[in-house]
Write a structure and sequence with these properties.
The chain is of the alpha/beta class. It has helices at 13-22, 34-47, 57-63, 65-81, 98-106, 121-136, 166-176, 204-213, 229-237, 250-257, 268-284, 291-314; strands spanning 26-30, 51-56, 88-95, 111-114, 141-146, 151-153, 156-158, 180-183, 219-221, 261-266. The chain has an eight-stranded parallel barrel, surrounded by ten helices. A two-stranded antiparallel ribbon has the order 6-7. The protein is globular.
Length: 320
Amino acid sequence: MVNYKDLGLVNSRAMFAKAVSGGYAIPAFNFNNMEQLQAIVAACVETRSPVILQVSSGARKYANQTLLRYMAQGAVEYAKELGFALPIVLHLDHGDTFELCKSCIEYGFSSVMIDGSHHSYAKNVELTAQVVEYAHKYDVTVEGELGVLAGVEDDVKAEQHTYTQPDEVEDFVKKTGVDSLAISIGTSHGAFKFKPGQKPQIRLDILAEIEKRIPGFPIVLHGASSVPQDIVAEINRYGGQLKDSIGIPEDQLRAAAKSAVCKINIDSDGRLAMTAGIRKVLSEQPSEFDPRKYLGPAREKLKALYMHKVKEVLGSDGKA
């Protein structure tokens, strides 16, 4: 058993309380490798933003659970080397079983998500409560989910939205004891969220109704990448084939962040930025074979994107 506090990490409780009262959201950036982690930490140090390092079950398989633990510990020390001791959460994204959540807690995660939204309401309550009971023994915070997001990202797939029902949220929070709640209000997983001609619109009216039912309670948005069209165009210019990739407008996310939404997940935008950086180098310098020469520029592009998100979308700059 590895305690996250021994790694220098924090859980999300105090971080979320400050965000809810301060009208901003914490960035939850997914990572799978060293360059992504470096970009996240450097961006958040420069902007003085608290951060949640997010790991999906797919990322855990890809990177190895032991290496991830040391990478998270390294992130804490790396931030200090860069000149600022960041508050950092290591969070499991879309855990789907009690066993996976338990394993992550034992490997030093300070926060876990149990996504029981694909089960019946009663089963979701039962599973979430089971994870909460175990996690709270170790002061690990837990995120639950009500409603289903459409789209595809790693192992998470759904054909269509099921919006969160405001009538259920108070009962769910009371029965499970969760520390935060992911809701479905029109955001979507992956880079192909909407079709050309569609006007992306998240249901801020549902969010407002949920806030009335559980005032001050930390709300989470998944699938909140904006799919920047300049980055999509750059990928396609250098040989990519990302046709009709459309995401959530940043102004709508900023409006959500000013309310009870205190954690916004961003994964696809980071993937796009890194891919654009890599494609550019390999297209302009086809003889290049040193990974540092294409991963380095990709890392810088990712850092710039994350600094933009922190300042212009989340409003978490200067809040660490």
